[in-house]
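Researcher: Good morning. I'm working through a list of sequences from a screen, and I'd like to move beyond sequence-only analysis. For each chain I'm collecting a predicted structure so we can compare shapes side by side. This is the next one on the list. No need for commentary yet; just the structure.
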Amino acid sequence: MAGRLAALLLTACRGEPDALRYREALAGAATWAEAREACAGMRDEGGRSDCLLAAMDRFDRLDAAGCATLGDPVWADECRFRLAERLGERGELARGLALCARTRFRRDCQWHLLQDEAERGLGEPPAVAEARLDAFSGAVALPDAGGQFWLIRFREAAAAGEPADEASCEGLRRPEDCRAGLRRFLRESLDRAARGGGLDCVAGLAPRVTRRGRPVWSEGPFTRSVVAAWLAERCAAGAGDPPPVSSAAGGPRAGPEAGR
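Model: Good morning. Structure tokens for this chain:
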């Protein structure tokens, strides 16, 4: 999609009509009606859908009926994805999650709503933040919403220089979800560190994982058990290189696995 936009902007310099209409819709049109008319005049169907969606964003005209009018089904689903995010921002999570389920991007779409909700609760105590998961109990494309929610919180805490603490999982209604998120956070942190060196299987030592000179997690029985299991796996015969670690970067934002 970004490639199509770049191509259209490039052809604008050559005076080709579709690119000029696209530019008019996004930069010249003063009203939604003018932008829609400019997009509708484009010959390329994919470019026309791209233009209409960008114009909907610009003039805040995203709605389910408008998404259905986009000729390209991929762009129609992208429109529903963006609309679901808007609904989530307004606190209409149930509607947003239901809309996500109607798209080919259903898992990533629901994950984005989960990420937004987790980030909104970053300053809250764990037991308070956990209530934000209630809305995701019916997120059929995201059955691991609980673990993903806590993984996001632990990642964000690490980025802010706050060590992940297994005590955060105590006293929750579903501590197993919190521990699942913590386990994945520990393992991906170890995998990343191991790719940079520091894994000593002969001495039985896992790499030391720090951020800005501080430990990424606080030690406790649970974290020690996860590190021990990881070390046994990584040092086993034929274990191979550590797997890639999903990044929090990506466009527009990375999903739970490889992006949509």
